[in-house]
Amino acid sequence: MIPRLPLLAQSRNIISRAGPSCPVFVRPKSISSSAASTSTPPASESPAQANTDAAPKTHFRITLLRSAIGLPRTSSATLEALGIHRRMATVYHPHTPDIAGKILKVKELVKVENVSAEEVRTKTEQRADRAAPRGYTLVSRKGTPIVQRS
Question: Is residue 139 included in any domain, yes or no?
C-alpha cells in the first residue's frame, strides 16, 4: 500500500509521495504581486544580459533530434503536423496552445527553443545558409558577363 501524506502536508507545497524510494515533488512558490511589479533586473544580471532579453520571445524553434521510426503512427503524424519531415530539420511556429500541445506529444524527439520574431527564418533562408559557395563569381560590365574564378 502506498502511504499518502495528510492534506495538511499537501497544502504546504508538497504534492505527493509515491513511496520511500521516490523523491518528494515540491510546487514552485508563486511570485508575490509586489515582487512581480518591479521591472529592475536582479543584481546578478549584467547590463549586457538584460539587453539581450529585450526582444519578446514569440516563437518556438523546433528541431527534430530523434527519428519517429518504430513509434506509434500518432507520433509521426504529430511531427508531420508540425511540418518536420526528417532528422535535424528545423521549423518555427508562433506560441499558441495547439502548437504547445503538439510539442508535448513528441517532447522526447525534439529540441525546442524560444526565439524572438527577428530570429525566425524561412525555409529559403535556411537553405541559402547551408548552400556551399559556388567557387566562382559572375561579374558584368556593360551587359557582357565575365566569369572570374575565386
Answer: yes
